[in-house]
Design brief:
One of its GO terms (cellular component) is cytoplasm. By secondary structure, the chain is α+β, with helices and mostly antiparallel strands. About 40% of the residues lie in helices and about 15% in strands. Helix 3 packs antiparallel against helix 4, helix 5 runs antiparallel to helix 6 and helix 7 packs antiparallel against helix 10.
Length: about 400
């Protein structure tokens, strides 16, 4: 099931890229056919839609200046993707504030615009960002991804309603217990028809039914799944009174295998998963020591090399439920010499052993933030000392070094 979902998303991404490539042309068509004649009618001039206002331009310039001119008294620069996400959010917030202020000025005295407070300058990072390889290569906040995932899935309903409805149920509803209750009810509807396809009493779901109202209707994607299973909304006369029902017919689906597929997909609990963006930063030991206060919803891990006065340290963001092996691999893949053995210890000198790699960061009490000490394994340490000035981090990682 997971492989089928991956192929489905891969096709959607490929289709999106193909559309962005522009109109196609035949190989044997003449070059003159690509010329586009002048428009007979000029579009009406709409300043607010076709070009940014002075206020919007000033907001954009201010946001970019804030990011590009950060000094030691401001929060750290983050990775390029995180910076782009931060700028985009600032622009949208300022644009929204400007539009709200402009609309209000015609009807009532202007009021102060509420703005979100900046995070403390002592935070190691400004926020947690995520990736969703199934949908796009963007790096966004979790709230931004929630909106984007919902838009993507609902735009896909017409193409693949059944699988998409299952993904919506698990990806766009955030009350786990409500989702499980809804899935159990939906599976019961499907099981009844699969086991007794000729029994007409299982072909109807009364819209006024308490269970249907409480457990199915509030869950996004639930009625879309019923539709893909062959149910359609109809009015039926019961005891002389018309009532709304969802009525099933085998004519609405390709066959009974459709119901079994939907049931299996529901029970697989497949969802659109987010991957936390590591948000790699390279800091001096002094910077890392000063900036370990973090928001409660995430923590940062830094692999700090303290072998020389000017050596750098590195930080990254992890989920509290990730295993320590992820931190170990993160350090390894950013080292100039990946194949050499190394040791990670806590600030108190506790050395992490091989069996710690399967433990979560919560289990090892490395949350919400911690500093780990890096040193080469004694088996290679002497050889590296004899080699002289050996680099620790890869050149492409050192580009991210933070200014004091």
């Amino acid at each position: 099931m997971a492989e089928k979902i991956k192929k489905f998303f891969a096709k959607k991404k490929a289709d999106a890229k193909f559309k962005l490539a522009g109109p196609g042309h035949k190989l044997n068509e003449s070059s003159t056919t690509v010329l586009v004649g002048p428009s007979k009618k000029k579009p009406s001039y709409v300043p607010s839609k076709l070009e940014p206002s002075d206020a919007a331009r000033q907001a954009a310039e201010a946001a970019l200046v804030r990011v590009s001119n950060q000094r030691k008294d401001t929060a750290f620069n983050t990775s390029l993707a995180a910076i782009q996400a931060k700028v985009r959010r600032e622009l949208e917030a300022e644009k929204k504030g400007t539009e709200t202020h402009s609309e209000a000025s015609y009807s009532q005295p202007s009021k102060p615009i509420e703005t979100e407070l900046e995070l403390s300058s002592h935070l190691a990072v400004n926020g947690v960002y995520f990736k969703c390889p199934l949908i796009s290569d963007e790096v966004l906040t979790k709230d931004e991804w929630k909106v984007k995932i919902k838009e993507f899935l609902f735009n896909t309903l017409e193409e693949e309603r059944g699988m998409t409805a299952c993904l919506i149920i698990y990806s766009c509803n955030y009350n786990r217990s409500k989702v499980i209750e809804c899935v159990n009810v939906l599976c019961r509807y499907l099981d009844n028809i699969i086991a007794n396809s000729e029994e007409t009493k299982f072909h109807k779901i009364r819209c006024s039914n308490a269970t249907f109202i409480d457990k199915v209707v509030p869950v996004l994607g639930a009625t879309d799944l019923l539709y893909s299973a062959g149910f359609r909304q109809q009015k039926l006369e019961i005891n002389g009174v018309e009532e709304e029902f969802w009525v099933w017919s085998i004519d609405n689906i390709d066959g009974m295998d459709t119901l079994q597929f939907l049931r299996d997909t529901l029970k697989s609990e497949s969802r659109v998963e987010l991957e936390i963006d590591r948000n790699i930063q390279v800091l001096s030991p002094a910077q890392a020591a000063k900036r370990i206060e973090l928001p409660q919803d995430f923590y940062a891990i830094s692999a700090e090399e303290l072998k020389r006065e000017k050596q750098q340290s590195q930080s990254g963001t992890f989920s509290v439920y990730e295993r320590f092996s992820e931190v170990f691999d993160f350090v390894k893949e950013n080292l100039e010499h990946e194949g050499l053995p190394f040791i990670l210890t806590t600030a108190t000198g506790h050395r992490f052993e091989e069996n710690d790699k399967d433990s979560t960061l919560v289990d090892l009490r490395l949350v919400p933030a911690t500093i780990l000490m890096f040193q080469w394994d004694p088996s290679v340490e002497e050889d590296l000392k004899l080699a002289g000035n050996v680099a620790y981090l890869k050149p492409e990682v050192m580009i991210l070094v933070q200014s004091m």
